[in-house]
Amino acid sequence: MAANGPRPINLRDSAWQASRSDAEILAAIRGRELEAAARQLIDEACARNAQDNITAVLMLVPEAAERPPRRRRPFWVYALLALGGLCLLAALVALGTWLVFNVFLPSAGTPTPTF
After folding, report:
1. Pair (44, 85) in one structural domain
2. For the chain, what is the domain count?
3. Three-state secondary structure readout of 46-90
4. Is 103 helix (H, G, I), strand (E, B) or coil?
5. What is the pLDDT of residue 1?
6. Residue 16: domain span
7. 49-21-17 Cα angle (round to 5)
8. Is residue 65 part of a domain?
9. Rounded to whole angstroms, how far apart are CA atoms 45 and 52?
10. What is the rounded CA–CA span in Å between residue 83 and residue 102?
């Protein structure tokens, strides 16, 4: 491994010795401004004998507004829409057929005028 490259974490590092549980961190930052909370965490890490490389990064993340769950339509609504579409299609086919045979095509019994 290179001297300047990554190195394995030694559990005796001061960073690990000064680290805290999530509950301790939450208790230290709750109700404080971000800068004051970061300063508090750094001061406590120093008090726990952390020698260097102490970093506290805090971010304010707004809570996501909960959207109400989307109401799904019941299956029968889609079934009725499909049935209605099929009925409309059948009516259009019947109308088209009637128009072709009764309006556009002359019947065999109708005499065709000749000039």
Report:
1. no
2. 2
3. HHCCCCCCCCCCCCCCCCCCCCCCCCCCCHHHHHHHHHHHHHHHH
4. helix
5. 41
6. 10-60
7. 25
8. no
9. 10
10. 28
**80 and 111 belong to one structural domain:** yes
Report the alpha-carbon distance of residue 25 to residue 36 in Å, rounded. Answer: 13
Question: What whole-number distance in Å separates Cα of residue 44 and Cα of residue 51?
Answer: 12
Mean pLDDT by 10 residues, the chain (115 residues): 47 50 79 87 81 77 76 91 97 94 74 72
A 10 A CB-CB count for 56 gives 18
Half-sphere exposure for 58 (CA within 13 Å, toward CB) = 18
Q: What pLDDT is stored for residue 82 in this prediction?
A: 96
Question: Is residue 79 within 8 Å of 52, Cβ to Cβ?
Answer: no
* Tokens read off for 109: 């019994």
Q: Is residue 4 in some structural domain?
A: no
Does residue 50 sit in the same domain as residue 14?
A: yes
Nearest to 15 by CA among 45, 35, 56, 38: 45
pTM: 0.40
